[in-house]
Design a protein that fits this description.
Elements: E1 4-9, E2 15-16, E3 31-35, H1 37-43, H2 46-50, E4 80-82, H3 84-90, E5 94-99, H4 109-122, E6 127-131, H5 135-146, E7 151-156, H6 161-168, E8 173-177, H7 181-194, E9 198-200, H8 206-211, H9 214-223, E10 231-235, H10 240-254, E11 264-270, H11 275-282, H12 307-317, E12 321-324, H13 326-340, H14 346-360, E13 369-374, H15 399-408, H16 411-414
Parallel strand pairs: 5-13, 6-7, 6-9, 7-8, 10-11, 10-13, 11-12
Antiparallel strand pairs: 1-2, 1-3, 4-5
Helix pairs in contact: 3-13, 4-5, 5-6, 9-10, 10-12, 11-12, 13-14
The chain binds pyridoxal-5'-phosphate and zinc ion.
Residues 9, 11-12, 14, 24, 26-27, 29 line the site of zinc ion.
Length: 415
């Protein structure tokens, strides 16, 4: 049973029923799902949650109503791993990695899509669509395929080949737009008006879609043994994941499922697309859109819808926002892999490089517990490393050649 009560405007607090509406009639502000937490308090306990499935749906009471059954490929309940070796490298006393590479299509987007398409089915839609920087398209196409729905996913045409392939394989329609994500998003807002019977996960279903990200906060608390961490680093594109992780921590505190304080959240962006980091650093009131140019294509949103809300949260809680170069992103994909055995896509490199940057400038406290969100799998962005991550040596099939190559690379001496 869901304790969702309706939709509420994030600007003027006007309320609406749980329907396919995403902006306020009065002020055009964005809507989000509201809940009767008072009623939930009596029913949602640690025990009731622990008895649930090993997926985001263990938190179904605090998500929008999925109807008869959720659209579910098994998103969520991904490992939270203590990262001793990377922590030591970065000088952090207690570092944890939320390994969301381990979702059904390899990114955290499976959380939001499972929620969005469940709501879409309950509301009577039968076609799935989205505007995407890649990962969302893959997840929408996969979840739609699993329930036999057609899908229309719209992406910049020059995305990583691996991401396009991972989307196209599910058999839906994939439209490559000659332009960047912000062009794609504008086009989709126009398409929504023409195709009201299409469920665009992150446009007309956005209030429902966004809720899926709260489960990251819920899982972190539960997996830490029902405690909150002190600091969490989150990669930013539209900023939706960040704002909903903040919402998730607050809800568990309000429900009395955990005591203490909500963690301080930190953002992570690539310098080549850093509208939020720039506004934060400059103390600006508004986020000025940028034209993205970075290898972190999944985060390349130049005009982030949730930017102002991210800034509010960063400023209210003493957070900070990293801004890292493409070189640092590549270096930190390698650092994470070498120290922890986790292969992340470029967004993960942005998170780790930003974490390192904010530790160095003293805004992240190295003595406090810290969680970094690793939101997508490295196989998705193989393109950026195939030229540098290669064989150590190529040799003829002889013992002598093998010994010579190993000696050269000091492996024999080491063994
Ligand atoms: C791997 C990955 N991490 C993080 C994000 C950021 O998501 P949001 O738009 O919610 O800020 C994205 C968005 O596409 C993504 O693909
Ligand atoms: Zn409003």
């Amino acid at each position: 049973m869901s304790f969702a009560t309706g939709l509420i405007c994030r600007e003027c607090a006007s309320t609406y029923p749980t329907e396919a509406r995403y902006s306020c009639e009065y002020c055009f502000g964005p809507l989000e799902v509201s809940y009767d937490l008072e009623a939930a308090r009596a029913v949602v306990t640690r025990e009731s949650i622990e008895a649930g499935p090993r997926s985001i749906w263990r938190y179904g009471a605090l998500l929008p109503d999925p109807g008869e059954e959720p659209v579910d490929l098994g998103a969520g309940w991904t490992p939270l791993r203590r990262a001793h070796r990377l922590g030591e490298e970065l000088g952090l006393a207690e570092l944890w990695l939320k390994d969301d590479t381990r979702n059904p299509t390899g990114s955290f987007k499976d959380r939001v899509v499972s929620v969005a398409l469940s709501s879409a089915r309950r509301l009577g839609f039968s076609t799935a669509a989205c505007a995407s920087t890649g990962n969302l398209a893959t997840s929408v196409a996969a979840h739609a395929a699993a329930i036999g729905w057609p899908s229309v996913t719209i992406i910049p045409s020059d995305l990583e080949k691996s991401k396009i392939a991972m989307t196209a394989i599910f058999g839906g329609t994939v439209l490559g737009v000659e332009g960047n994500y912000d062009d794609v998003n504008r086009l989709c807002v126009e398409l929504v008006a023409e195709h009201e019977d299409w469920a665009f996960a992150n446009v007309n279903l956005r209030p429902y879609y966004a809720e899926g990200s709260k489960t990251l906060a819920y899982e972190i608390i539960e997996q830490l043994g029902w405690r909150t961490p002190d600091q969490v680093v989150v990669p930013l594109a539209s900023g939706s994941q960040f704002t909903k992780i903040a919402k998730g921590f607050k809800e568990f505190l309000e429900l009395g499922l955990v005591s203490g304080e909500a963690p301080v959240l930190f953002g992570a962006q690539a310098t080549g697309c850093s509208p939020i980091a720039t506004a934060f650093a400059e103390g600006a009131e508004v986020v000025t859109p940028q034209r993205p140019h970075t290898i972190a294509r999944s985060l390349a949103i130049g005009n982030p819808a949730d930017g102002p809300y991210v800034l509010d949260e960063l400023r209210a809680r003493g957070g900070d926002c990293g801004s890292v170069s493409d070189e640092e992103i590549l270096e930190c994909i390698g650092l994470l892999a070498r120290t922890e055995g986790i292969f992340a896509e470029t967004a993960g490199g942005v998170t780790i490089a930003s974490l390192r940057q904010m530790v160095r400038r003293g805004t992240i406290d190295p003595e406090k517990s810290t969680v970094a969100i690793i939101s997508g799998h490295g196989l998705k962005t193989l393109d950026v490393i195939v030229d540098s991550a290669t064989v150590t040596a190529t040799i003829p099939p002889t013992l002598a050649a093998a010994e010579a190559a190993l000696a050269l690379h000091s492996l024999v001496a080491a063994s």
